[in-house]
Design brief:
The protein has about 400 residues and is an alpha/beta fold. Helices cover about 40% and strands about 20% of the residues. The strands form 4 sheets. It has a 7-stranded mixed β-sheet with strand order 1-7-6-5-4-2-3, sandwiched between helices. A 3-stranded antiparallel β-sheet has the order 8-9-10. Bound molecules: pyridoxal-5'-phosphate (PLP).
Length: about 400
């Protein structure tokens, strides 16, 4: 079969979803491609994958495999709520901004209530205010606190922060769901056991990401409270999320978990983002927007730089979070990709800085009479003494300005 004739997408930092399938997941899928095997999850591959996840989380959790993160989040939330309940999440949460209303759809109307907070993490005082602001029958009753780990802007909640959020939620009879599309990146960033960041910190259900971590497709919905998983299999089936050839969804988890590739991939992606952050931070005109704690770097840059990078073929998003450009690294990103991107940003920022314009009128208005017939004129922190006001033109030109008349 011929490969599609398309420009290679190596110069991309748009998403960890752009990456291919990592060798460990690929080999496991290939190993599962052997003869006839029972369908719909009634197979040894699926059993082994679930067992691996129980070992990773050090508990007898109940595990389900679905095709994608939207389904994992939506179905998990739906299983925790009734239609008249509400879910509290951060205003930048994927469930709120990027799931096309699927959580509300699958829960038959459960409302998402959002709160803000710096760095993509909610402010607990805000959460409590939203929980308690009303208790009347007209208000959708808060039932779940949903947090994303790592967050949509590449920060992470510490186990203590998760514990405090859970404690608050439980105080009001609520459940805790975690969107862990980039859970592995958070695990290696914090260097803590997965159990510490989840059930030991009060998380009831985790939607664990596989695709961004290096698999072709598939997320695991992990119920730490097994009772909450009651009839979840029916929910998956009804939503079209029960794979008939389940072994090809579940076997890659074995490949990822048994040798630690899931953590290695995340460590590599985080390391690339750290390298990128280090290089971008030193460039004039670039501002790092959030502390980089996982595999993405968010930056503010001049619009002209953004446009020039795009037309040079670099792929990145600027609609995620609260603006700025998001550079996302994956298991497949290389150090050379990172250095090339940093160099491209540096070059474009330099270009921007040499094209400086000023109106002649504005320059003249900056020439202040010195009281002795001359003028003081300050430009870029340097002060000049002028006899003739029109000399602002020459000085601005020596600073590299293009003067507009
Ligand atoms: C934070 C977060 N949650 C969940 C998802 C999963 O979404 P999808 O339905 O595209 O697999 C994503 C994907 O971008 C994400 O960034």
């Amino acid at each position: 079969m011929e490969e599609p004739n398309r420009k290679p997408t190596f110069s991309q930092f748009a998403s960890d979803n752009y990456a291919g399938i990592c060798p460990e997941a690929w080999r496991a899928m290939q190993a599962a491609n052997n003869g006839f095997v029972s369908s719909y999850g009634d197979d040894l591959w699926t059993e082994r994958a679930c067992e691996h996840l129980r070992q990773v989380f050090e508990t007898e959790c109940q595990v389900f495999f679905v095709f994608n993160g939207t389904a994992a989040n939506s179905l998990a939330l739906a299983s925790l709520c009734r239609s008249y309940h509400s879910v509290i999440c951060h205003e930048l949460a994927h469930v709120e901004t990027d799931e096309c209303g699927a959580p509300e759809f699958f829960s038959n109307g459960t409302k998402l209530l959002h709160v803000n907070g710096p760095g993509g993490k909610f402010d607990l005082a805000e959460v409590e205010r939203v929980i308690t602001r009303r208790s009347d029958i007209h208000y959708p009753r808060p039932k779940v606190l949903s947090l994303t780990q790592a967050t949509e802007v590449g920060t992470v909640y510490t186990p203590d922060e998760i514990g405090a959020a859970s404690e608050l939620a439980k105080r009001y009879g609520m459940r805790v769901q975690m969107d862990g599309a980039r859970f592995a990146n958070a695990v290696v960033s914090l260097d803590v056991a997965p159990a510490e960041m989840t059930w030991r910190a009060g998380v009831d259900v985790l939607c664990l990401g596989g695709a961004k971590n290096g698999m072709a497709v598939g997320e695991a919905v992990v119920f730490f409270d097994r009772e909450l998983a009651h009839e979840f299999d029916y929910r998956c089936k009804q939503a079209g999320q029960l794979a008939s050839k389940m072994r090809f969804i579940s076997a890659p988890w074995i490949g990822m978990l048994e040798g630690g590739a899931w953590l290695e991939n995340a460590r590599h992606a985080n390391g690339c983002a750290a390298l990128l952050e280090q290089h971008l931070a030193g460039i004039d005109g670039v501002r790092i927007m959030y502390p980089r704690q996982a595999n993405s770097v968010f930056v503010e840059m001049p619009e002209t730089v953004v446009a020039a990078l795009r037309s040079a073929g670099w792929h990145f998003y600027s609609f995620i979070g609260s603006g700025g450009a998001r550079f996302m690294c994956s298991w497949q990103t290389t150090e050379s990709d990172v250095l090339q991107l940093a160099e491209a940003v540096r070059t474009e920022c330099k270009e921007v800085h040499v094209i400086k314009t000023a109106t002649f009128e504005a320059l003249l208005s900056d020439a202040v009479p010195d009281g002795q017939g001359g003028y003081n004129f300050t430009l870029e922190g340097k002060t000049y003494h002028l006899q003739d006001k029109d000399d602002v033109r020459k000085i601005a030109e020596t600073h590299g300005y293009i003067i507009i008349y």
